Amino acid sequence: MRGRWGSGRPWNGLRRGTAVSAAVLLAATTAAACGGRGGDDDGGTATGECEGQQTTGITDSSLKLGGIYPLSGPASAYGAIPKGIKAYFDYVNEEKGGIDGRKVEFIVRDDGYQPPKAVEEARRLVEQEQVFALFQTLGTPSTTATWDYANQRKVPQVFVATGASKWGTDDKHPWTIGWQPNYVSEARVYAQYLKQEKPKAKVAVLFQNDDFGKDLLDGFKKAIEGSEIKIVQEESYEVTDPSVDAQMSDLARSDADVFLNVTTPKFGSQALAADAKMTDWNPLHILNNVAASPTVLQPVGFDNVQGVVSSTYYKDPVDPQWEDDAEMKLYKEKLKQYAPGADPSIAYHAFGWAVASSFHKTMEAAKCKTREGLRDSMRNLNDVEVPMLLPGVKMTTGPDDGFPIEAMQMMKFEGERWSLIGEVIDTREVFGPLD
């Protein structure tokens, strides 16, 4: 992508060390630009050098997107995200004429955090609803289950709501890309924080036994290599487990002075509650970002979560430092107008607003308003500023970088809200690029 941010160049699908043939990919790209459809199409408006590219789900006046979320089930707290997204698109449709004059229709499906259901809903959105793109598939398991299908059908799977590192390192799935900082980058931020604050930390870890949990844990292990920080015990849980009380009891006997909590909201809340009850164990509690919403902490009691630390990359709607921020004012005003009953203080609503704004900029800058054009745009971001992201956090991707956001800032829970601490940590600069 370049558009208003620079000169365009199509993403060629290559990363350092890949064995994929550049010649084959170049031929495929040229064929698409010269008229090869590369997938289903119901006709459209692509002309000139964009002629022949896929225009399913997009016209001169409309743009249809489909999102898959756990509106029910163990990760249902994330159901707040599409409310923020829809409020943004409704605002843009009614007051800005849509994206490039196209009114956005956002169709949301519930997979209950079940991968087979996610595949079913992806097929329904693509084949029956004929969406232009899958915008947000939430969760590592659900996205893993659907990305083969999306890439075989050559349907953009844009800004998936999961930080698994494979979205940015796999050369076989150029139509899928993440948005939020990947779990390895997040783990790097925690490692860097401990190197500065507790350089001889003994760490106990609770993690979800899937790609999500293992990705963050493995990233943390690699990031502390060469330091005096040691992991002294690990405990995993399954998403079907009723609780993590047994695992927490085992971890409390580890003599660790740091607890790394790698969980989704339901289990994050359980782990926080268990930690609060253990008077003989008082570790520094690091809570991963995906479970760091105040809605997760509130059931535990704010008095019981004081001093917990986490990381973030977008503005917290309850942080008073953003009270006069223009984007925060706009978000609160329009959420109230277009999503009545949605609480603007819930961070997942602000997340939805931020990722929708990111899609807006990415689509607006696409040289071709086609599926291929969106694919190329999301792979060629160049320091794109999104007003809801923290100052200093920008979106950047390229042929050798499939991770839009890799900078985060630590935060500590104090009183009834998170407070930013330290400075933004750009993991590209501290640890180098992921490969």
Q: Could you please describe the fold and organization of this structure?
A:
- This protein is of the alpha/beta class.
- It folds into two domains: 3-8 and 20-171 and 324-404, Rossmann fold (3-Layer(aba) Sandwich), CATH 3.40.50.2300; 184-312 and 410-431, Response regulator (Rossmann fold).
- It is 36% helix and 16% strand.
- It has a five-stranded parallel β-sheet with strand order 2-1-3-4-5, with helices on both faces. It has a four-stranded parallel β-sheet with strand order 7-6-8-9, sandwiched between helices.
- Strand 11 and strand 12 form a beta hairpin.
- Helix 2 crosses helix 11 and helix 3 (115-128) packs parallel to helix 4 (140-152).
- The longest helix has 18 residues, at 347-364.
- Residues 1-43 have low confidence and may be disordered.
- Belongs to the leucine-binding protein family.
- It comes from Actinomadura hallensis.
- Keywords: Signal.
- Residues 1-33 form the signal peptide.
Tally of separate domains: 2
Give the helix tally.
Answer: 14
CATH superfamily of the largest domain: Response regulator
Radius of gyration: 21 Å
Mean residue pLDDT: 90
Judged by helices, strands and strand pairing, the structural class is alpha/beta
Widest sheet: strand order? 2-1-3-4-5
Which CATH class of the largest domain?
Answer: Alpha Beta
Poorly predicted runs are 1-43
Could you give the order of the helices and strands?
HEHEHEHEHEHEHEHEHEHEHHHEEEH
Classify the fold: give the CATH topology of the largest domain.
Rossmann fold
Q: Note the overall shape.
A: globular
User: What helical percentage do the residues reach?
Assistant: 25-40%
The major β-sheet equals: 5 strands, parallel
Keywords: Signal
InterPro entries: Leu-bd, Peripla_BP_I
Organism: Actinomadura hallensis
Domain Leucine-binding protein: 63-414
